[in-house]
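Consider the following assembly input.
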Amino acid sequence: MWNLQEYRFATNPAEAVALMRKGPGKGAYIAGGTDMLLEHPSCDFVVDINKAGIGDIARTAGGDLFIGAVATLQDIVDNSFVRGFAGGAVSSAASQCGNRPVRTTGTVGGNLCNALPSADMAPVLLALDATCYITDEDSQESLPLTDFFVGPRLTVLEDRLLVGVALPGECAGWRCASHKLTRTAEDISLVQVAVSLGVDEGRIKEARIALGAVAPVPMRAILAETMLIGQEITAITPDVLGDVAAIAAGECDPLDDHRASAEYRRDMVAVLTRRLVARILADDGDNREGGAA
Amino acid sequence: MNISFDLNGTRADWEVAPGETLLQAFRAAGVFSVKLGCETGDCGSCTVLLDGQPVNSCVVVAARINGCRVTTLEGLLDDDLMIRLQTELVEHGAVQCGYCIPGMLISLYALMKQDPHIDEEAIRHALTGNLCRCTGYVKPVEAAKAVVAALEVSK
């Protein structure tokens, strides 16, 4: 059994941070707990944030999509506003996390704060310019998701609390698709790629390519994105697409491990990037599909 | 610590340790339809309903279910949909060693309770989290399709 001395409940974010700092000993935040009960992190107490009022999914007055940190993965799959945002790409990515029972309690915040290089929700959120909202006892901070991950299992949080992520309203009309490459449906991903393109009058105005499980942290392939931005769709020939995919593969920094070799992972970044960009551009533009490649 | 929750329609007051899982609490309390399998959230043999949604009780902390509604197979034995599912699983020869069956029943029940008009893909997606080490994956799907068909007819 997980050797915990105390289980604390927070009713709001500031209280959660205060309970975390109160001691004695080392604490950790807990929401769904689907990772923590596998890993049994060494701590004396946990602070339960399930009832801390940070589980809502909402459309803000400015049209942004706000997803509370303890919104469950199934909440994200089912939410009608998320399903309509950027072709439903975020819901689609959430539906590929774990299995149905895990999605009932597993949260988006837990997925991000656990900070695995293979965090399932990270690529699609990076591809849609997510901003993280972080709370301290008496202050708030927001920063781009790109700056949230510091290293494997390490974020900028320290003992502060992630309260949620927001996707800008202008991304709602982007075409976005992601793919999680795994051996089996439930397994940790070998490679993840998420692509989003903001297309206007036949020209690519915005491009994001985000990669997971191929670097110490989830990352953007900025150089490959730059090759796409400003291009007419008709100029994206198979040759150009091949170059974009090769550049993206060159930007990542994968590891060899028991799941796959670094060489294979790098090859798959190229393959998936090429397929996803091609599929998005072939889409007739009404964004019915946000799903797997 | 003490937790108080609705277990199959009856109020339960249990003493649990802060790091105890819901699965460990069930086994200690003699709720034996909830099977201990992988204890990593992969195999689904410990699946129960938490406020109507399927969860792997091996990766849910018991402490957090205070005030929640928990349903195990024991609480659904008189339920029409559950009886149909059980009957069809038996009729289709889906039950081999039987260890995964309570979890499969709960997953299928949760799926069809929410929406009985589903296709094979939805059934397979819902069963992603239920491993059968007798490797009987076709017959449970056929059994579930038979339940869906019967519900369509009886509409």
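Confidence is low (pLDDT under 50) at residues 286-293 of chain A. Ask yourself how this observation constrains the way the partners meet.
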